[in-house]
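ok so i was messing around last nite and threw this chain in just to see what happens. nothing serious, just curious
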Amino acid sequence: MRADNSRIKIRRMSSEDIPTVMVIDRSLSGPQRAISWEVEADVEAEVYHPALSFIAELDGVAVGFLLGDIRGVKYGKDMKGWIDMVGVYPNYQNLGVGRKLVQTFCEVCERDRVDVQVLLREDDERLKKFFSTLDFSRGNIVTFVKEFRTE
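result:
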């Protein structure tokens, strides 16, 4: 079920929105939380200060957020719009809020002529499906990890 798209308003995030982002993010626990984004949103925002971030409001109430930025040459690639994290209150999921957040981010990136990327865990089927429905396709970044366990 989708909300009337005109009721979902997207605006740029400000530093005053961080407490709200924290509340939304903390509501995403257990199966509600995307396994790709283990770091808490307030930590992500405070450490990286993503400059292209948005708040979604439905009927004047903040119900979702997107943390993102346009970053320079990284991994040997051109400037890209990077979606760092998207979160929507569980009761407002499947209404088109996350979709509208991502579409707004993509519109800004398209205007600035940069492609958009998001890093997801290979086993995060829910987010892979979500981004696929928004015409994202698998990119060519592969990670190799050497783990050192302390037991």
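not much to say yet. The chain has four helices and five strands.
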